Hints:
Elements: H1 2-29, H2 37-70, H3 80-106, H4 114-120, H5 123-137
The structure holds protoporphyrin IX containing FE.
InterPro entries: HemJ-like (IPR005265)
Transmembrane segments: 6-28, 49-70, 82-104, 116-137
Main location: membrane
Amino acid sequence: MEWVKALHVISVIAWMAGSLYLPRLFVYHSVAEKGSVQSETFKVMERRLYRGIMTPAMIASWIFGLIMVFNGMVDWSSGWPWVKAVFVIALSGYHGWMGGFLRAFKEDRNVKPQKFFRMINEVPTLLMIVIVIMVIVKPF
Ligand code: HEM
């Protein structure tokens, strides 16, 4: 199970790196002129990051995490696994939400301002902080 845990943490890092970088790309893409070379380049970067790295990394995080769950590594009578589960589901929801913006940018129909993407950029950071405290400190 140590190997599975290592692979879990590796895939989580890749998922998180993408989840932090993609909204940064949206921050710059949102002020690029529609149809410009710059805007088209952002589309390619966003698609490759999302489909090539973030989604496979999310799937791998779930698979390796669930392997540990089904091997009885988690004491569900504690509170922390439940809090982690809620926040992980929220992070997965955030992932899907980003997929919606990816499509909007691809079709040149994004209407959200730059400030919006700067703000939602903080969401995965906050979720990740809680998740890591739950799984490492196991406070309750
Ligand atoms: C995708 C669904 C996920 C599932 C099903 C899952 C499940 C698990 C399980 C069962 C363990 C072993 C728990 C233990 O040590 O007793 C674990 C470890 C860990 N998880 Fe997750 N996890 C998920 C997502 C995440 C995410 C999103 C993060 C970070 C943002 C994360 C960070 C960690 C870390 C750092 C460990 C290692 C803790 C240790 O040293 O024991 N996990 N995970």
